[in-house]
């Protein structure tokens, strides 16, 4: 009898727990459903969409321009390349020519500085958007209030969204251009070349005879070594790759004694142009996230 009572009591407790837990579970499911129904539920999602847009544009533009320049430095004829490098180095160094050993290292210096510049521009997007967006987005404080919740952002008329994004695009373009200028690629390269020049001068001063002999021997070996069949095949492949890539536009640097300045102007101009051309894509993406077809006419 006692066991039956205990059994009934345990069943009753289980039933009570289920009765209490069921409404809570339904409430959690409803909250999750509400969140799923509104994917852009807070300021973070809107900001992430905008940041992703600018990261794509910057990557497209800088990757294309960097590839053009690096292909030129890698696959152009050696004599032409050295002539261009020496002309650019002389310009950077106020008429002072560069030693051959540093001239050979110059493409590596350029590649390293380009990598750092691209990383600086790309890495600055998040901060730039984070600063500019609150200044242009209508009623941003109310939007930001939804950041830690699943509530939908307050409705904003479409024309105000478009105006805000156009203003944001101008601000981002200006700030990204400023990142280019603040990085000062030419000054950094000038310092690299000066450091290389100084290192060689110090080495020569320490042991002039040994250094001179080594440089002379190395130069003589490079110019007099017979070309093996492997060398011939490698060089033939190199020439083929050069012709292939040169037709893609690398000839734009032909005879340009200031090719780095040309590259910087072109990269900045194309970045601003792409931002202006593709801002409509950003606006449509935000429209699609904020409004659906049923209520679009209400705005």
Number of helices: 11
Find the structural class using helix and strand composition.
mainly alpha
Identify low-pLDDT runs.
18-24, 31-41, 217-227, 238-243, 245-250, 293-299
Task: Categorize the overall geometry.
Answer: elongated
**Overall pLDDT metric:** 75
Helix content: over 70%
Order of helices and strands: HHHHHHHHHHH
Radius of gyration: 31 Å
Strand % is under 5%
Largest sheet: none
Number of domains: 1
Signal peptide: 1-21
Keywords: Signal
Overview of this protein structure:
Keywords: Signal. This protein has about 300 residues and is an all-alpha fold. It has one domain (about 40-295). The chain has helices at about 1-35, 45-75, 80-90, 100-125, 125-135, 140-145, 160-185, 185-205, 210-225, 230-245, 260-290.
Write the layout of secondary structure elements.
Layout: H1 2-37, H2 43-75, H3 78-92, H4 100-123, H5 125-136, H6 140-144, H7 158-183, H8 185-206, H9 208-224, H10 229-246, H11 259-290
């Amino acid at each position: 009898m006692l066991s039956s009572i205990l059994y009934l009591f345990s069943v009753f407790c289980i039933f009570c727990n289920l009765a209490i837990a069921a409404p809570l579970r339904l409430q959690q499911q409803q909250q999750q459903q509400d969140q799923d129904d509104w994917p852009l539920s807070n300021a973070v999602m809107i900001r992430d969409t905008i940041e992703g847009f600018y990261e794509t544009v910057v990557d497209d533009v800088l990757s294309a321009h960097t590839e053009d320049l690096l292909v030129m430095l890698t696959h152009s004829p050696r004599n032409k390349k050295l002539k261009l490098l020496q002309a650019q180095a002389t310009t950077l160094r106020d008429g002072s020519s560069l030693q051959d050993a540093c001239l050979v290292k110059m493409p590596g210096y350029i590649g390293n500085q380009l990598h750092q510049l691209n990383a600086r521009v790309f890495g600055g997007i998040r901060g730039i958007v984070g600063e500019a967006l609150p200044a242009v987005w209508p009623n941003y404080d109310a939007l930001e209030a939804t950041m830690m919740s699943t509530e939908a952002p307050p409705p904003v008329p479409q024309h105000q969204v478009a105006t805000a994004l156009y203003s944001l695009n101008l601000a981002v373009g200006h700030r990204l251009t400023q990142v280019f200028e603040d990085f000062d690629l030419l000054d950094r390269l000038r310092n690299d070349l000066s450091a290389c020049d100084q290192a060689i001068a110090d080495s020569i001063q320490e042991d002039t005879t040994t250094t001179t002999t080594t440089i002379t021997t190395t130069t003589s070996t490079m110019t007099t070594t017979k070309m093996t069949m492997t060398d011939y095949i490698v060089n033939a492949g190199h020439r083929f790759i050069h012709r292939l890539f040169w037709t893609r536009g690398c000839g734009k640097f032909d005879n340009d004694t200031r090719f780095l300045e040309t590259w910087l102007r072109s990269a900045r101009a194309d970045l601003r142009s792409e931002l202006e051309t593709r801002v409509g894509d950003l606006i449509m993406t935000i429209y699609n996230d904020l409004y659906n077809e049923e209520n679009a006419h209400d705005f």
